[in-house]
């Protein structure tokens, strides 16, 4: 049975984009490209695990139960902004999660050095 997976822009690592994967179990694993992906699976009930592959880790995981016995299924997967957040999957377009984590990382990268310089200036003779 046909499953159409609409995948959004993948997580970007330092040198490349991370590979997105749809794992239906039973040895049915497909790499996803950004945009519409057409995969064929036997009719049945599946718990689809969608994730991005980061070196040896699976990041941006999202689970979705689907039923392919009644015909083609359209689903959407959106990986998060960072590898520290979960992805989003559903039967309608999803918002990209992890904006707060990305914001916290950027703020910490700016504030921690400023705080250390301030403490250094206060402790200087």
Please state the overall shape, judged from the principal axes of the Cα atoms: elongated
Overall average residue pLDDT? 90
Question: What is the β-strand count?
Answer: 8
- Cα-to-Cα separation, first versus last residue: 74 Å
User: Which consecutive residue ranges, at least 5 long each, have pLDDT under 50?
Assistant: none
Q: What string, H for helix and E for strand, traces the elements in order? A: EEEEEEEEH
- Helix content class: 10-25%
Q: Note the main sheet.
A: 4 strands, mixed
The fraction of residues in strands falls at: 35-45%
Major sheet: arrangement of strands: 4-1-7-8
**Could you tell me the radius of gyration in angstroms?**
19 Å
Question: Could you characterize the architecture of this molecule?
Answer:
The structure is a single chain. With 125 residues, this protein is an alpha+beta fold. The protein contains 1 helix and 8 strands, in the order ββββββββα. The strands form 2 sheets. The protein has a 4-stranded mixed sheet, with no helix packed on it. Strands 3-2-5-6 form a 4-stranded antiparallel sheet, with no helix packed on it.
């Amino acid at each position: 049975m046909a499953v159409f997976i609409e995948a959004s822009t993948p997580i970007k690592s330092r040198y490349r984009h991370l590979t997105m994967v749809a794992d239906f179990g039973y040895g049915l694993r497909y790499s996803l490209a950004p945009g519409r992906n057409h995969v064929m699976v036997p009719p049945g009930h599946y718990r689809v695990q969608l994730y991005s592959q980061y070196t040896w880790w699976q990041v941006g995981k999202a689970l979705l139960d689907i039923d392919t016995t009644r015909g083609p299924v359209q689903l959407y997967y959106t990986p998060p902004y960072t590898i520290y957040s979960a992805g989003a999957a559903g039967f309608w377009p999803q918002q990209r999660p992890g904006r707060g984590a990305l914001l916290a990382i950027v703020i910490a990268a700016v504030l921690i050095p400023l705080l250390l310089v301030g403490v250094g200036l206060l402790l200087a003779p």
